[in-house]
Amino acid sequence: MSVTRISAIRAGRGRRKRLNIFLDGRFAFSLEAEVAAKEGLQVGQELSSRQVELLQGSDRFHRCLNAALHYLGYRPRSESELRERLSQRNFDADTINAVLARLKEQGLVDDASFSKFWRDNRQSFSPRSQWLTRLELRQKGVSNDIIDQATGSIDDEDSAYQAALLKTHGLLPSDYQSFRRRLGGYLKRRGFGYGVINHTMERVWQEVNKNYDEKELKYGHRNSNHHPL
Question: 3-109 adopts what CATH topology?
Answer without folding.
Answer: Arc Repressor Mutant, subunit A (1.10.10)
